[in-house]
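Chapter summary example: a protein plus FE2/S2 (inorganic) cluster.
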Amino acid sequence: MHETSLTVNGIPLKATVPARRLLSDCLRHDLGLTGTHVGCEHGVCGACTVLIDGVPMRSCLLLAVSMDGSAITTVEGLSGPDGALSPVQQGFAECHGLQCGFCTPGFLTTITAGLEDNPAPTPDEAWELIGGNLCRCTGYQNIVAAVLRAAEITREGAGDSPGNSRCTPGPASSTMSGEAAL
Ligand code: FES
Ligand code: FES
């Protein structure tokens, strides 16, 4: 067994785990943070995505011991200290960006990091941003709309005038939109 020290959602934590313990399992089973979901468990679906030092990564492909000393943000850490929804969570709520919700934690973390890099994505850039995450329910249209709305909410919070996306995803030239049309 190995002790690993992690800062998860701003809280320093220690876990004693086998060398082969996946980070996703460590978060869920050792630390009780079950908001991180596990779908494919081999790096395809994106449901397990968490932020490692701000970078979205598949927690099912990482060993917990290799993360010693890292700062990890899970979906539980996205809302404010008072429980207020983050702009991305608010965008999902307003634009109906989820149905069963299984994929949602991975989308929320991925989009949170993506909007840090590109605070004003075009519709095509929003499609590109979510291209590594799979959802079996929504058809992606409302998720793209939520990305654009989240960007608006962030800008509105910074003092910009209210946006007008009205939860419409806009034109998309991505593969996913092509698949949706089949
Ligand atoms: Fe990790 Fe699917 S569970 S990518
Ligand atoms: Fe059900 Fe995405 S909302 S898998």
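Key point: Helices lie at 23-30, 87-95, 104-117, 123-129, 141-157, 175-181.
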